[in-house]
Amino acid sequence: MWVLHLTALAELPATNQHQLVAVEKANLAVTVYNDKEEIMAQATFLDYPNWNVAKQDDWVSVFQELDSEIQCTPLNTLFMHLFVAVDEYSVGCCKEIIRTVFKAVPELHFIFLIVPCYMSLGSALITVFDPVGNVPSLTFDEDFAVHVCHRHNHYPQLHIRRARVEDHDDLMPIFLHHDTILKATYGEYFLAELIEAQDEENHAVVCEVEGVAVGFMSVCSRVNMQLLHECFDLGPFHGLCIPHPDDILEPPPELSIQESQDAELRSSSQSSQKIVEELQEPVSPEAMERVQGKIPEESATEELLSTVQSGNTGEMEDMEKLSQVSTVIDTDYYISNTSLASISPPEETSHFRPIYRGASAAFCIQLFCIDETHEARSLDFMNFVFSLFPDKNFCIISVPHLTPEFVLIQNFVKLIPFNNCTLEQDLYVFHRAGLLKSINIRFATFSDTPGVENLVSTLMLSKSILEDLKQYNKAHRDPDGTPLQAFVAEVAEQVVGIAVIRNEMDVEYIRSHYNIEDFIYFSHHQREEHGHLYHFALNPIFRHYTKFFLKEILRLGYKSCLYYPIYPQSREGKFQSSYAHSLTSALHCLVPVRPRRQIVYPLEKLGINAPSKAVSKEPLSYALNHTNRKLTLEPKITVNAKIVVVGASSVGISFLETLVFCSHLKFSNLTLISTHGLPGKKLLSTEQRKFLASDHCFNDKDHALMSLCSWVNVVVGRMTAIDRAAKYVVVSKEEIVLYDHLVLCTGQQYQVPCPTGADISQHLTNREVPNSSQRRYTGKVPCNHFTLNDEEDCFKALTWIRNNSITTEGNVIVYGSTIDTYTTVETLLNLGVRGSCIHLVQPPPKSTITCINNYSVEGAVEDALRAAGVTVYRDAILAQWNDGLHPDPIQSASFTTPTKPFKLPCAMFFSFFEKNVDYETFKAFNDACLVYDGRLVIDANFHTNDVAVRAAGSLTKFSNRYYSNEWTHSSFNSKEIGFQLAAAMLSLFDPTLEPVTEPPADLDRLIPMYKGAKIQGGILPGSYHYLHIAKPAIPTPLEVQKAQPDFGLEIVTGNAKNGTYFRIHINKYKMVETITCLSKEPFPASNYIRLFGQHEQLLNNLCARYEDELITDLYSYFTEPWCMALFHDRFIDLRKELHQILTSKEEGDLPSMEQLARQIEDEEISLKEKPRSYLKRVFQETIYKPLVEKSILDYLHYNQYHLPMYAWPGII
What we know:
The chain is an alpha/beta fold. The strands form twelve sheets. Strands 19, 20, 21, 22, 23, 24, 25, 26 and 27 form a nine-stranded mixed sheet that branches. The radius of gyration is 34 Å and the shape is globular.
């Protein structure tokens, strides 16, 4: 192995640790593998020199003085800090690495290599680097030799020229390799004809390498501006027109109120909810950067936005709408600059749109193709094509939205369509000024204030930005002493961007509450290297320099990481958005960081062994976004496919969460259609009891930690139709939402019960009335009738209770037999409704299994209902409202029973009678010819009978061909279903995943079985806190389960009526299978959920201790310090690591522990002792014991900020 470690720490050897730090802090690290996945070479590159030959933030002048011909800048320069290679392959690997780096970073022109003068470069590096000169070091007495590698020697810029007819033969193989439609449509010589047809409006250019054309671009100055103005928000680019005195840019006075509301939306740094009924959609932050300043070109006297008298706007052919041919052929799917928060602007019938009178300032790319080998140089075309249209400042291109973002349009800005746009293409724009390479990022000064004011003048948070800039110029720190840094982006002496950061003061909190270590090795970053991004605004013309701006912030600010939090904001109005404590238009370049599940600590019991307050504190929850040095040059794969999710159920939210947190993918067209938008608005305060039971999949805090509204377009409304042929969903019978992939997760809802109409004056019984359970109520829903399905419904019910004095007078009827009836009764009691005024009416059961399925818990709840004075009626069927008269409002309700009917006065009626698919949803399925058999029919891969339509959750059932009607998605954990649905779809978008192989013929008839626990919980009458955790199973009465011979062991402590009940069922494999808790006191439910699926020995030999009567209270038992590690979010990783140790062959001549166990089971080994004793002895006498101990101690040491209650060698 040949190693050249170019560390600045000359006294230290090139250890593995230092190499790891070099890779961790590198802007770019490249590794070469062979076909056996063995590492052959590795190199790391940073944006500042090593050996301390210059300061990290001030090296440009040092290197420009070495050679005046080397015009190095932070944009076009990197430094090689480490190179490692296998000797015999070092030369080839070195050249491949250099070529790869130049290809990955198109702006890069120079790679510098700095070594001590006495050091030889070796046979590999000397082939690519040329000597430049010597420079002194700031910390060492010796000089250092500087070598440079030029782009043109490895991946040169392309030569661009006008196309000639003879280029046809070179170009056609490239076209036909990817696409044959053009040839089939326009004939074999369409390209030659296109080249021959050039005129003043149409030009064709090629790029060539060694005289051979390797790429082609056709451009045209005829653009249908009227169509573009109707379909896209072109405001940030002045409508792609030349400014004209008659332009109407301001709304008339009568729209001023509406416009002020729009301005609030437009200033938000995140997405807002789209209101279908009023045709409003949120706006991306980039669309609001209306920077009207003029950017002078580098070598031109004219101003780029100056008015000229030329430019034609002609109608285009109907076939293509935007241009004659808008075909793009390319295969690179990497890097994108489209913000995931980019959503259409608000649109109403009265919404003002600017009118532009000036001539068109844009030309369009009609046809583009380039060979894969040279596609990284696609931007080389742009200088030449802009020179063909000196009066045009914008270049636009439209591509089908399913086309992966290739290299060329990664430098363009994706325009935002209006909500009424039905074009099946995305529009991208590039400004002439974007070609300027003179962008300079530097610290802000006092003289920058006017430029920054002009830049941010139209932004709602402009005042906050300017105040922070003033504070930076005044003291470089906040009044409380927090270091403050402000940076500006400058082009041709004009400010085009502003960024403000502070030191991140909550580093420990971030590490302990977010999975930041998915992206960094935390221990390799100093505390002062963590920065907090407060403001980031960049002129959209230079949006493709966003990552460069962030990279320079890290370099100049001596930071390695940046964090940007998004705080939740709840509004009771129509718009739901995430609250920005600051502004950033760089969100698309950041990655969302998953929150970590937290242990609920018994702080009083732990005492001094509790975690620090920095870890255990609970500030306002926020969603965290992040970038670091490595991510500034790491590409993302953009997915422009329109994925529409219908229903904000736990399944739908879990599906969206999984897609959003795929850090290497960027889904730019995620849409959620939901009756009430995204959940998590915190409409009910924490003091109020919940009306509905919880499945413990998501709570309000979880929604705040995800901030899905930053990445998902939200359409508020109800799906009323699906057009499978045209691929769109109709919302609220008016608006359409286009889709490529439709995901149905509407679930089932409580429906308004249909009274049987029986006249109780005739003393009818249940046997004598018709069965109305399958009938649908079609009348007007009474104003005091409530079906509670989500938090919005609960909030409306709560408002009705308060506004109509329900707590002091009037009867409340709760109709149903689900667990939600109990939680609603308890909520009513807690709100002050007298128990004697609450009537719990239960219809005849459809099954012998109750909603709680535990006699002990049911008995305690029934006693509590009696004690509270709540009257319970059983086997009652709703007969009439108001004796069959007009039911609005309900004043009385009549019921029949197996014996005699009864009638109750009613001021409020809650119905939990039966959950079913909403009728409008069913009708949409039925009209779309989706197979429906009681529920929407799917296969094992979530597909309906339409390949573009998937469904999941309680809405669905498996096809009858699986012969498994007992099992549905309702049997499983909703969060796991959503995750598996996303995993099934990711194979369509993620090229890093292995191709999905078709299952064997006999396996595709099996339904998937999921392992996550099925959970329900809530607060039951008597103020009992209830939690039930069980494995997915076909419902069976508890007594029947206990009668099975392989039931296992039941551990019960406490008493249900006293509120101390805790039951654990250990199955025959000694695994925790069921947990039931009923307590008068709140308990840490999230901790107990982690116990599911654990072996009883992990629970400190639970069975043995229980049998020895050492455990009298499981609540107290699971607050003891020893079990905190079991609740830790990374305990599952420790289990996997230990399992890997025991299953791997650690010693050459000895089988693994797993193999030994199998040999004993198969009687391949004759033992003189008990198998358990033999395995234990082998474990202790071999390498396995120290390996396991080391793994456990490393786990405890690494997570000591969460687990300080554990001791390990060296701390005592």
